[in-house]
Predict the structure.
Amino acid sequence: MKIKTFEIRVDPAVRERDERIVNEFLAAVRVSRLHCGCLRGRSSWTVIVIFHDPTDEEIAAAPALVGDFLPPATDLTEQECERYEALCLWRDRRAEAMGRKPFVIASNRDLLNIARNDVATPEDLLEIRGFGPRRAERYGAEIVAVLDSLEDACG
């Protein structure tokens, strides 16, 4: 049995990132117990997870989404993580506006690949696995605008 703690900050600017990290972890392990509580004097919650590593049979039976498509957030640089989070937020809002599922616009893996690469123009998306000419034409300008807005905010 193992234990891991997480902090989920209340601030909306970082809450979604913190929640995504916890959700990715929870999807990758077999949870025995889960405890949570508010941290006094801080605007955050703590989550304590008591877990077992999944067995080989459980790994084989589980969907491949977390292990194959979403590596742990610690594998990302801080800048890549910010890019990924911004791209996920854009994709989810775009999908909602279109009345479609988010993966129709771009999978988590596609967004992760974009976050890890230098994309400065819609044409650069053609170098990203999963993006063809149609997708790059349809969403390229919006994706570049999202990435540019991060660059502008960071200076």
Strands lie at 2-9, 30-38, 44-52. The radius of gyration is 17 Å.
